[in-house]
């Protein structure tokens, strides 16, 4: 079913209001915009499914947003972060509570960040038709095939949720998933601070003054991209910002020499704004310039320990049936290997229980890895 009017949407959301959960997916495009353009919202529960057209003339999405805000209805997504960002932009709030089947699948040992089609195949045995995956969802009318494709992203999601939810209950890991959902439901995750965007851009041999310039021009670009609803690099590319930071232009003529800055831009409104941002940065007191990133001192003698930690991580994750990536990454292992008090996620909560505590014991010589036939075992070392 394709919903294109407010009356039908109100009725459908009313039918779902008493449901324990509803599966949700969105289709959007953002190749030519800063903000994602929402083109379709799919919902399903217990054999009921519909695709809501937010581009339909005069449609009021308030009933759908009320459903997303209903604390009694669990919202089920797969790989939720982008969908959550779309709702945050549309609504100013986030759906809650939520359940991310990709994270749940990792907790339940279905691999590292399994794709939706992979889960559908492994859990339901259905092979999805992904022929409409690269479609332009903003074009109307939508074809029957597009609507069928879109609805398949939520109808099978109900089965996947029920299967994974049962596995979490059986393995007493419901609390593990709730812990993972906290960052996905934190509005700060989806809030962009223009004055922090300079950290995305790399410049050679950075000096504090150069970083100050980079901070100001990157903030100008971010605000401009948001205001004009254009991709960042359509305003000005990263490489040009790095060059401006390294060699601050004093006037339009200097700016015109920056590779990637067209003369019409350098001598126009944007050029004047960039020069003003550079001037502001150059006039800052030294103590207000960004701090230089800490010098990366080459680590020595820790690679062997990291190799042991990797083996232990694999051993423990296989034993508990959980994806390694969810427990620790290479950077975490580097920190554990080189720090007396490693401040990483692997040392907190359930991660510490299944890996972190043993990682410290291995590092302290209280745990050893030993061969066991064709495999490896971890044994406690007597003091």
Topology pattern, helix = H, strand = E: EHEEEHEHEHHHHHHHHHHHHHHEE
Read across the widest sheet, the strand sequence of neighbours is 1-4-3-2-5-6
The description of the largest β-sheet is:
6 strands, mixed
Mean pLDDT: 93
- Based on CA inertia axes, which overall geometry fits? flat
Instruction: Identify low-pLDDT runs.
Output: none
The structure class reads alpha/beta
Fraction of residues in β-strands: 5-15%
The total beta strand count reads 8
Q: Helical region count?
A: 17
Q: Termini, distance in Å?
A: 68 Å
**Alpha-carbon Rg, integer:** 26 Å
Helix proportion of residues, in percent? 40-55%
Explain this structure.
The structure is a single chain. Strands 1-4-3-2-5-6 form a 6-stranded mixed beta sheet. A two-stranded antiparallel sheet has the order 7-8. With 383 residues, it is an alpha/beta fold. The model has no long low-confidence stretch (mean pLDDT 93). The longest helix has 27 residues, at 144-170. A hairpin with a 2-residue loop joins strand 3 (37-45) and strand 4 (48-52). Helix 1 (6-16) runs parallel beside helix 2 (62-68), helix 8 runs antiparallel to helix 13 (269-282) and helix 14 crosses helix 16. The protein is 49% helix and 11% strand.
